Hints:
mainly alpha
Amino acid sequence: xxxxxxxxxxxxxxxxxxxxxxxxxxxxxxxxxxxxxxxxxxxxxxxxxxxxxxxxxxxxxxxxxxxxxxxxxxxxxxxxxxxxxxxxxxxxxxxxxxxxxxxxxxxxxxxxxxxxxxxxxxxxxxxxxxxxxxxxxxxxxxxxxxxxxxxxxxxxxxxxxxxxxxxxxxxxxxxxxxxxxxxxxxxxxxxxxxxxxxxxxxxxxxxxxxxxxxxxxxxxxxxxxxxxxxxxxxxxxxxxxx
Length: 242
């Protein structure tokens, strides 16, 4: 098997030229190249950038930046084009909050390039391409912004439940064609929160995130509609149910 042969030779390669040749000829991915090498160079990382599957690229933007890959303009352009390619986004099946995770991590890196950060925002928007339209129906979105929603989704992630709720709220606001009523809630409905269907999804997520805190009254949005005799065709609740 040519790929296994290239991998075995890579373990014994002593020069950068040998290593680059074996990576190219064997089409070796990131996962098998990095562990056996005692030392990696910017040139090797640049080669790995162009071999990275979509999810690998998304998860390792900070690593590529740390190894000076994006010091070259052509590599920045490649990353931006790859991240925002609609076909690549659709085929990747990457969940929207993963783009948010990547965007947060990249923003915290040293001297992030605004073009790559903007590409992640654009890819997040594109990741909702398969979301069905709710048509000409009046929709109410009740988003839980209580204290429990500020917890991380897992020990390995900095993304919180309220981040994900904000992302889905933003996406729903963008895809409703008729009137949409946004009613974030904790112990009651949070009024005048400034949510708009014209905002980017991440802008909505940031607005929702700033509302976090308080108890949970899951019925508050429904009570709000009933008290004011506001009729809607669809009600969507987003909550961790705690």
